Prior knowledge:
The protein has 345 residues and is an alpha+beta fold. The chain has three domains: 5-101, Rossmann fold, CATH 3.40.50.20; 129-194, Dna Ligase, domain 1; 198-333, D-amino Acid Aminotransferase, Chain A, domain 1, CATH 3.30.470. It is built from eleven helices and 13 strands. The protein has helices spanning 25-43, 58-67, 86-95, 105-112, 114-123, 172-185, 234-238, 240-246, 258-274, 309-316, 321-334, and strands at residues 5-11, 47-53, 71-74, 131-134, 150-154, 168-169, 190-194, 199-206, 212-213, 217-221, 248-252, 280-287, 293-300. The chain is globular and about 60 Å long.
Amino acid sequence: MKRLRVLVLVREGLVPPESMDGYSDEEIDRWKVEFDVVATLHNMGHEVHPLGVQHDLSPIRRAILDWSPDITFMLLEEFHGLAVYDSAIVSYLELMRQPYTGCNPRGMLLSRDKALSKKILRFHRVATPRFAVFPRGKALKRMPSLRFPLIVKSVAEDASLGIAQASVVRDREALAARITFVQQRLGADALVEEYIEGREFYVGVIGNQRLETFPIWELVFSGLPDDVARIATAKVKWDRKYQKKYGITTTAAEGLPPALAAKISRLCKRVYRELHLSGYARIDLRMNEAGQVFVLEANANPNLAYGEDFAESAETGGISYEALLQRILKLGLKYQSPWKTVAVE
């Protein structure tokens, strides 16, 4: 691929420095994704311009009009502090006739709303835990006809925001308390679903029309006490000391029969298509002791940091980090946005 002008959209305050030297692990964690992508693209020979955005679209417009980037690398996960607006930013790029990396607006919107995406998957007879939604601002008048234990989470947030051990509830009193927590503390509708005890898998999918899956990745809890739920809490995902203390890591899933691995791969491609995803995504699944696989959710534009699940699974599948970013750029340039089919007047 030729040398490209790449505009990288990040959240304001997360424009990475030129070097990690002199920064603590905690400081680096804040902008590691942005640093890895920007530094790697630069080292690959591309001309890279990171741009921080938070409350104003005009910097994006000016950068597109003044700098004429070949493509925008979409690392912006929120706008006005709201994660649900990430699809609106991509829609704005579409209106600006600007190629971009990652998922299209429809796929981002559908996958961001966990309840809506689960309804779509259930319509297409994709196995997903039974669930109910409790909108914020409405009193809890009745309990759902679901089987305990249940897990309570935000209907729209990602990165395990608001998920803790208390999210897994085993009686009505704990359920009511956790629904109230999500509604009031997170300011979100509460998604309540049946908790699937078992192994947790992550599968990376990449492509627009022709899809490829990476090796199945697993969240492993080697040292967690028996009475603690094996779930991806915020501590499990982001607290390094907690991970080290309890032997929590992610790695290639072991012991899966080839036929089952192939079935999971086909399932993830099906989910990707039913939710109109494009670019790249990660599908989260659970498998119970009986070997039944349930789709938990689909994550458009997952974490792209070097050494994290998506990039690690790609590398295990033979795709280096540089090759992964290059493929993401290529898919963005090739994606057939609606504006590409309309003649410019």
